[in-house]
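hey team, just a heads up i'm posting the complex here instead of the shared drive bc the drive is being weird again. everything in one block, sequence lines first with there labels, then the predicted structure for the whole assembly after. its two chains so it's a bit long, scroll down
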Amino acid sequence: DAGVIQSPRHEVTEMGQEVTLRCKPISGHDYLFWYRQTMMRGLELLIYFNNNVPIDDSGMPEDRFSAKMPNASFSTLKIQPSEPRDSAVYFCASSLAGYAFFGQGTRLTVV
Amino acid sequence: GESVGLHLPTLSVQEGDNSIINCAYSNSASDYFIWYKQESGKGPQFIIDIRSNMDKRQGQRVTVLLNKTVKHLSLQIAATQPGDSAVYFCAENYGGSQGNLIFGKGTKLSVKP
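-- predicted structure starts here --
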């Protein structure tokens, strides 16, 4: 398996624009997580899904953030409108039991 | 609130020496702990895990120790190599749900040749 695949790897956008991050989990995994990593706050769990159903979105910063998982092999994290403070590395991870496997991350820069 | 913290934000060791990275956790309900390694530009990578019914677990060159009495977790790396240079995170899981995985801030390990 190729592991968790995220796209794009890098994204630069202007403030106010919509940003969509994509994730393909490892086949067969039933949990999917979205994390955000910054120097100030470290790794923060934003939201996670179990069997495509959102279980806990309490980590989502505000209504500008939304995540979907239309099927077992795809998830998106959308920010609309984006703000400079959203600049961070966003990681997707998936798991079946126990520990999570992480993707390479998407580095988002909002200017 | 509950949190996972690290005692040492940076650690510098000589190649060949043993490294010990420490982590304190505050949630007594945590039942599963994981150490991750994150190299520059990459996502965190699983190293080793331990459940709360154990106090020690060994892998290849790594050992995790869990002291539930003082809520302390450590990662020991034997014969540290330059390739071990990375940021190491401990993470705790509680509440019986895989989603409740809380990460510490990380410790940067630098290995001097």
